[in-house]
Amino acid sequence: MLWLEFYASFEILNASVLSPVRLDNPASRRFPEVKMFSLFAYKNDDKVLDLIKKDNRPRRTARAIVLIETEDAEQALAKASDFVHIVCDLQGLAQRNSVTFWGATAYLRAEGFWKPHRKSWRVTRTDPSWSLFGHSVATTELQGHFRKWLATIDEPDFPLDDFANSTHLLSDSYRSQQFLEVMFLEDWVAFELLVNQLAEKTEIDESARKRVLKELTKGVEQYIEQEFRNKLDDESYGYVKEQLSGLRRIPVGHLIERFAQRYGIDLKNYRIETLKKIRNGLMHFGKEPSDYDLWVFHVKMRQLLEDSLLSMVRTKEANKSERPSPGLPSEQDRPPMEEDLAEYSMSFDAQVRDEKGQSLTTGKFDVRWTCDEIKVSGKAEDPMSLWGELGNQPEGYSLSGRGAVGVVTVSNAHPTRLREFDLEMRALRVEVDYTG
Known about the structure:
The chain is α+β, with helices and mostly antiparallel strands. The chain has helices at residues 45-55, 73-95, 142-153, 160-173, 180-203, 207-228, 234-243, 252-263, 272-285, 294-312, 384-389, and strands at residues 4-13, 21-24, 34-41, 60-70, 100-110, 113-122, 344-353, 359-369, 374-380, 397-402, 407-419, 422-427, 429-433. Strand 11 and strand 12 form a beta hairpin. Helix 2 packs across helix 4 (160-173) and helix 4 packs antiparallel against helix 5 (180-203). The mean pLDDT is 86.
């Protein structure tokens, strides 16, 4: 099998990269294809960051470059994107705001030049673009932090999916336009997700205890059957039997204590019992107990979640004084800079296909896209064929055909308007294959 070296370049939004990062083989178990990763700010990024602070609108501030070995450009983008998603989650955790990428390009070196083979854009969430609460980790010390973070995530038993989901919930809870009750519950759900994953993992080593609890539950069930079956109607008896499973359930308080011990978190700093009471009040009665100031305890809840996530990736163990060595790829060795556009557009002739790849119609289309939305408009030979299948296409349609620079593919597209032969759609992803 022939493996090729690609440079995958990513345009990072909202990142305050005040010190560059360069790591070789940063996560060799999870991402053996990734041979080098670098992250650095664009020139004049301080001015761009000031603009984001003023209007909270997303802008590109940094670039990530991944040297990756794969069979082709499509695989290079897919695998490098998975890796850079993690990088963005970690940077967002450090900054307390949303960090993501918009626009990715796979380059292959040919005849001494970096040539683009494939580009991809997707609709992405960028809110909040700026943190009103400062950074949790100094972004002047990123090299050592990223080395420790990625090494920890690379461990086989690290719960990466739960970590990422909890990080997304934390970022979402920083959006100022949300209700305070929703923000509190988002952070609690994210924290409980982390606690439960550890409980599920450690249950594997507690088979003996589980056997005892199973015998206990069976014994209680037999006792109730013998002593109370004739005293209860069928409905009440069914309720009692349903509650027996709770005998095998470890109380959430004990699970939280186990989690805190595992990651070195002092629960006395957060008043966990009060947080539980507020959670129960919001979940079961739709309001917090009147004795507590929800804003004060939401700050504690958010801090508990943030400290948990930072502890899971061993932030305190990072070498804060480490700097990249050797340096970043030289200007000559980097792929060329991308166009600094807020909106892209392209025209192409395309076939429209359903989820199974069946061609439904053809037409001439224009696609315009920003980080917030992708719009397709044009004329289709038979647009009504799309409406007939729409209810059976939850993933939407794909449009693919040749444009001015290569083959354009728009995916997850859903019709929004029809007028005779005119067609308008909204989509989630645009890709351009320059070799097609």
